[in-house]
């Protein structure tokens, strides 16, 4: 049965009533803030861009100024410098240039700040929303709808969170979103295997390895699929790729299940059932 297609709001598909949003913020892959399709590039203050990114992740939530100092200047013990005010001023100058678009509002509350997203489209917000709807549909046993939302989740994950940028909070957020993408991909892979749609399953396996090149269970799935197709050369090739990546990057060997699977497939023994796990 073909998976239903959902009309999910996005920067180029917002529905007839809403129209295309004029303000778009992207954090998956390289950071990009767009107004009417044009990238905002003039972040005048050194930490203004980083402040905006952090508030964007914590959108619609109050963030105390001490926390902002810890995140943006972790090497400093003094939380009373003017650096935060300078960064806030830089963010306001950027936002004021397109305030008529009503994309974002930066509010000062007591001893901290809150970024309200208003009418802006934010990829990480849509990414989490798609996954949550997929998970809820799965729990409700509406698997067709769940798979459609998980596919939307995978489509939005075009790269790691803030690719190329560093920072403790960035690494934490990156790992969280990577894990969310992998859970969606696991569901898509499992569903394709259940339908014995090998091309689709291989596609989702490759997408999984794009996100996590050390995901050993995915190599096992690829080996089993090629075994089912009597493509023993491909079985061995994927095993070698797995072994090389694990050895080179992590300093470990393939686990016992991978070794047993290779031996069984190369001897032509009865193959274990395919799973997406």
Automatic annotation (TrEMBL):
Organism domain of life: Bacteria
Q: Where are the transmembrane segments?
A: none
Domain OmpR/PhoB-type span(s) in chain numbering: 37-115
Which residues lie in coiled coils? none
Q: Which residues form the Bacterial transcriptional activator domain?
A: 122-266
PANTHER family (UniProt xref): TRANSCRIPTIONAL REGULATOR REDD-RELATED
Kindly provide the name given to this protein in its UniProt entry: BTAD domain-containing putative transcriptional regulator
